[in-house]
Amino acid sequence: xxxxWKVGNGKKVLFWEDWWCKNCPLKIYFFSLYRICNQxxxxxxxxxxxxTDGLTFRRAFSAMELESWKDLCEMINNIQxxxxxxxxxxxxxxxxxxxxxxxxxxxSFGGVKDVKMNLMWKAPIxxxxxxxxxxxxxxxxxxxxxxxxxxxxGGAFCWTIWLxxxxxxxxxxxxxxxxxxxxxxxxxxxxxxxxAKEEEExxx
Length: 204
Hints:
It holds the Pfam family zf-RVT. The chain is mostly helical.
């Protein structure tokens, strides 16, 4: 993960399994060919030496597989090996050397950046509210019955989010930035808590 082979003599690098060209291992890039290939554990050296004759397949190609095979043949014809040893490089850093920051970026990146959530995390609001909104957006909040059994008192907060959501959907009110939505939620929650406090004082 994150490491890529720099091919020298090709003795250590698996042709299909290892990442040494393209943007991923060839077994992923040419998956339809890999799954029917008889030489799934061959090395780059073997293919560089034997060319396309070094690969055989269990059946004839479909039309789409034939197109993939043409691309693979072109790539094979361009393989260059030398007398140096194969070396493993860290490919997530410009200097090709491992750094903890590049590893963290790899582990924390989900593949698609959520711009709205990024704005939410940067908003000047309490961290616990950010966590709650993040969980809501990803369906990570437990059912009301479970929360009630645990004596959870956050119903007011959920209600303010629900009201704001209804205005966006049924009254066609747009929110240009998630920060505006967050500010309103906090404002409504503050008002709700103030009213609840007044009711408690009246009871006393």
